[in-house]
Design goal:
Blueprint: H1 19-23, H2 47-55, H3 58-63, H4 70-76, H5 78-85, H6 100-104, H7 121-130, H8 138-142, H9 156-202
Helix pairs in contact: 2-4, 4-5
Length: 203
């Protein structure tokens, strides 16, 4: 009840998640599955999709001024990719990468602006990262972008480096395909000529 989801509930705000929104895939109290069951909405492999029920809803997020695409940015991250690429029958031990609840908490989630939030400020963030990354120091968290997407205004050097690499890699790939296609095509021309001559002779 003291979490960012619980505080608005007594006032009649039904937008924030309740117990069943997280513990049931369809928010049905009769469809709650034990947390450690792979099909549970609270199983590590399913956590991001569970949070995305609200946090990937543009209309709902706009209502609260949350502009970051939290689900998309998480799935682009190393942690998100590790979860996505893990087998469907992965055990808890195999799913040893951070999900939303590892960083933000579960029943006690605080707003990111709350000084008590585990991701508020560099000191709290470092302590949170050190839970998994025991050797992490202040430099480790300085490169953390949160859920913000880089663009030409926010961290332009990162944005333009990524954009340049994207264009360069596509150009190299296209060039390789063109060389192979041209090579195959040029080798195929004499064969086509020979076939045409044979047909003419046959006529």
């Amino acid at each position: 009840m003291n979490s960012v989801h619980g505080v608005p509930q007594p006032g009649g705000n039904s937008d924030p998640a309740t117990c069943t929104d997280c513990h049931s895939s369809d928010s049905n109290p009769h469809n709650v599955v034990r947390v450690l069951e792979p099909e549970a909405s609270t199983y590590p492999k399913n956590i991001a999709q569970t949070c995305a029920k609200c946090h990937d809803d543009p209309k709902l997020m706009d209502k609260y001024g949350i502009v970051e695409k939290v689900y998309d940015s998480y799935m682009r991250s190393y942690h998100g990719k590790a979860i996505k690429l893990s087998p469907d029958n992965a055990t808890i031990q195999q799913l040893n990468t951070a999900t939303c609840v590892n960083c933000h908490g579960s029943h006690n989630i605080k707003a990111t602006s709350d000084p008590a939030a585990p991701v508020a400020g560099m000191d709290n963030l470092l302590r949170t990262c050190q839970i998994c990354h025991s050797g992490a120091g202040p430099e480790f968290v300085k490169g953390f972008l949160g859920h913000k997407a880089v663009n030409s205004d926010f961290l332009p050097q990162v944005y333009w480096t990524g954009t340049s690499f994207y264009i360069f890699s596509r150009a190299m790939l296209a060039g390789g395909v063109l060389i192979v296609a041209t090579s195959i095509g040029l080798r195929g021309v004499p064969r086509i000529i020979r076939k045409v001559k044979r047909r003419k002779k046959g006529e």
